[in-house]
Structures are given as C-alpha cells and as structure tokens.
C-alpha cells in the first residue's frame, strides 16, 4: 500500500506541470485566442515537435549534468540535416539512409568537440562557441550554401506519424538504458555528484567525457533526421535555420528533467519537459503572441521554474517553522488564559 501511495504521488508530481499548463493555456486560448489550441490536430503537432525537442534536450543532458554547456548542438542538428541529407540521398536506401547519414555526421562532430575539450583543456562553453562558428561556415560552404532539400517524399518517413514517434521513443529508450543500467551511466552520475571522489575510485573521466559527447551525437543525429523529415528542407543561413533557438528551447526541458528525476527517471522527465515547452509555444501562438515575444515567455518560464525549484527547500523549511510556531502558540495560549 505504501509503495502504491508513493507511486501515485510521484506520478501526480511528474504530470502536474503539463496538465496545469494545458488547462491554463486552454482556458486562455478559448477566452482570448483565435487558434485551435487543445484540438486533436494541434496536440498531434505538439507531440510530433516534442520528439525533436526531446532528442535535442537529451543530447545536452549528460554534458550539462557534469557542467559542460554545449551551444553548438543546434548548429550540429542543422549540419547533420544538411550533410546527412546529402549522404542519405547518395546511399539511396530510403529513410534509413537519411537516418544513418545524419547520425554519422553528428557523431563525427560530437567526437571532434569531445576531443578538443579533452586535449585543449579549456571550458566546454568556449569550445562549443568556437565550433558553432566553424559548423556554421561548413553549412554555408557545403552545397554552395543551398542547405538541404529532399524531393523524394518517401525519404521523409520519420516526419510522419507514427514513425516520428517510433524514432523519438526509440532514441529515448536507448538513452534511458545507457544512462540508467550501464557502467557509463553510473560513472556519469558519479562524476556529476563528486568528481574528485569518483576519480580516486578509478573512474576514467576522459573516457566518460567522450561517451557523453558520442551519446550527444547520437541524439543530435536523431534530431537532425526529424528536423529534415518534418519540413523536407533546411536552410544553411544561421539567421533562418533556427539553430540558436533549438539550443535555448532545449534548456528548459533539461532543467525540468533534472527536477523531475527525483520523482521519475531522467529520460521521462526530459520528455515531459519538452512536451510542456511545446505546449507553451503552441498556447502563445494561439493567443496571437508574436514569435519574438514567445522567446520572452519561454525565458520568463525558465527563470520562474529555476527560482522555484532552487528555493523549494527553503520554502519547505519556512512552512515547517510556521507550522511549529503555530503549534507552540496554540499550546501556550490556553495556559496564558488560566
């Protein structure tokens, strides 16, 4: 019975954010909006977009868990779509070739990032910014800056239901197994909690770093496949390919996943975070909020969420102090009257 109560409580806490967000946005959209937020069609689009958002967030999760922020992930997604799309068409084996091409490009790019981090021994943030500029240049040079365009609609299978969900969930399961049940995942969690102690016990940090970057590349390749499959084309110019917005939109799901990991597994928490953020974006769109201001809404949500989760323990202690003070006051008051 106790286990059932714990499971129920954890499930409620895990699902509270998307449920509350959906209800609030649905009411606001019905009262003030003009879109079809909350319909089956809109929710299906949100769910499809969640697969790509979750893949990008999972790509950043292991590195962020260990304090390595990678701002080149968005540009790697675009590069994997552009170059991987060309490789996929050259292989001529349909959507599987597209997936293999995108994953291959992303793995190579992530391996380069990891090697530079290990060899140069400079902050990952600095390396990621430098590599982001390099990848942007590669995108502009490859195919004469023409980006990627798939004319064979049969190759865009992973942008349609149910295949986009199959690919996204499969990527999530791979991440879940590697992070939860393997030595790599154990070492990642150990290094995140106490790096010095983990190194003293024989954990090879450099090997784990490369593992994190390669796992990042795998998830980036999945995201690049979905990115190209959803639209059929990707632009090379950074002003129009939304590479930076991919990164900043992935931060909230990662932080939400870290917070929800106390109630559920990290992978599911990241998926719920990605779904919640796509709900927020769809809700703001239904309310007629311009795209430029939508990022303001996402930023405000992230600030409020981090402020709440950071100070949650302080709030709990404050409530406990008030409760004890009220109990003591209630016991003293009758004696004072006597």
What would you note in describing this structure?
There is one protein chain. The chain is mostly helical and about 350 residues long. It has a domain at about 50-265. About 80% of the residues lie in helices and about 0% in strands. The protein is built from 13 helices and 2 strands, in the order αααααβααααβαααα. It has helices at about 1-30, 40-65, 75-90, 95-120, 125-140, 165-180, 185-195, 195-200, 205-230, 245-260, 265-285, 290-310, 310-335; strands at about 150, 235. Strands 1-2 form a two-stranded antiparallel sheet. α3 (about 75-90) crosses α10 (about 245-260) and α4 (about 95-120) packs antiparallel against α9 (about 205-230). The mean pLDDT is about 85.
As a percent range, the share of strand residues is under 5%
Which residue ranges are poorly predicted, with pLDDT under 50 across at least 5 consecutive positions?
Answer: none
Strand line-up across the major sheet: 1-2
What is the number of helices? 13
Oligomer: single chain
Give the end-to-end Cα distance, rounded to a whole number of Å: 45 Å
Principal-axes geometry comes out as: globular
Sheet bearing the most strands, described?
2 strands, antiparallel
- Count all strands and give the number: 2
Order of helices and strands: HHHHHEHHHHEHHHH
What is the residue-averaged pLDDT?
85
Helix content: over 70%
Radius of gyration: 23 Å
**Structural class of the secondary structure composition?**
mainly alpha
């Amino acid at each position: 019975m106790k286990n059932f109560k714990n499971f129920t409580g954890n499930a409620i806490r895990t699902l509270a954010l998307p449920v509350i967000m959906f209800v609030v946005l649905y009411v606001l959209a019905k009262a003030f909006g003009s879109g079809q937020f909350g319909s089956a069609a809109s929710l299906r689009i949100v769910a499809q977009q969640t697969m790509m958002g979750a893949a990008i967030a999972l790509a950043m999760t292991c590195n962020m868990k260990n304090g390595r922020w990678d701002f080149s992930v968005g540009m790697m997604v675009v590069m994997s779509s552009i170059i991987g799309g060309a490789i996929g068409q050259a292989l001529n084996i349909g959507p599987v070739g597209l997936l293999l091409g995108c994953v291959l490009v992303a793995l190579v790019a992530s391996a380069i990032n990891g090697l530079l981090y290990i060899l140069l021994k400079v902050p990952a943030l600095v390396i990621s910014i430098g590599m982001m500029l390099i990848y942007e240049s590669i995108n502009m040079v490859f195919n004469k800056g023409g980006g990627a365009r798939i004319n064979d609609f049969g190759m865009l299978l992973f942008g349609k239901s149910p295949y986009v969900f199959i690919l996204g969930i499969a990527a999530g399961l791979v991440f879940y197994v590697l992070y939860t049940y393997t030595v790599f995942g154990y070492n990642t969690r150990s290094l995140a909690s106490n790096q010095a102690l983990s190194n003293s016990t024989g954990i090879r940090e450099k090997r784990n770093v490369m593992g994190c970057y390669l796992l990042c590349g795998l998830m980036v390749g999945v995201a690049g496949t979905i990115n190209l499959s959803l639209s059929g084309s990707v632009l090379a110019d950074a002003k129009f390919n939304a590479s930076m917005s991919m990164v900043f939109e992935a931060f909230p799901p990662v932080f939400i996943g870290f917070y929800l990991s106390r109630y559920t597994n990290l992978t599911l928490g990241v998926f719920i975070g990605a779904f919640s953020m796509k709900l927020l974006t769809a809700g703001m769109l239904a309310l007629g909020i311009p795209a430029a201001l939508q990022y303001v809404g996402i930023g405000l949500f992230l600030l409020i969420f981090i402020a709440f989760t950071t100070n949650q323990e302080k709030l709990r202690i404050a409530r406990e102090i008030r409760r004890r003070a009220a109990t003591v006051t209630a016991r003293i008051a009758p004696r004072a009257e006597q």
